[in-house]
């Protein structure tokens, strides 16, 4: 292998590592939206027919997300990997917003259908992130979201509530907490280096 090719491969590996490290910063986003999903879902279940749980909770999560990003922006290197992942997650978020608000408002999509589509979109985003970053954690989350989405199609009542809660807790909240821990370790390592 020639030196130029070796240097290019090293650069690609460093960019993938930087992309993975930058995703640690976004752990708080995963925790925020995971908790928001749980609050909205169970509030909606407790008050059937109420129109405000989802728009209110998702709106509050959106405002918090924007404010935190504004006051505490990502300070790491921006590479093509971080731009690709930011674009991917923004596209998924916008798609989920449109399906959730327009699908519900038009009554074209049932709540169960929206949850299924939401889980499939999350699976796609995690699968793509896992592939870009070569990260099995993200790939495992994709399988979790896809499996939970399929399970939601065949379950009802308590089974559906349990699958929804477990998928969001593991795939968003716990995974986000794990990313936040990795970010702290990374910062600690950088300050000691």
Helix fraction bin: over 70%
The total strand number stands at: 0
Mean pLDDT: 85
Shape call: elongated
Uncertain stretches of 5 or more adjacent residues? none
Order of helices and strands: HHHHHHH
Derived from helix and strand composition plus strand pairing, the structural class reads mainly alpha
Radius of gyration: 18 Å
Terminal Cα separation, in Å?
A: 32 Å
- Relative strand content: under 5%
| Number of H/I helices | 7
Query: How does the major sheet shape up?
Result: none
Chart the SSEs and their pairings.
Blueprint: H1 3-25, H2 27-46, H3 53-71, H4 80-106, H5 111-133, H6 136-154, H7 157-192
Provide a concise account of the structure shown.
The chain has 7 helices and no strands. The protein is mainly alpha-helical and 193 residues long.
List its salient traits:
193 residues, mainly alpha, 87% helix, elongated
Walk me through the structure.
The chain is mostly helical and 193 residues long. The mean pLDDT is 85. The chain is built from seven helices and no strands.
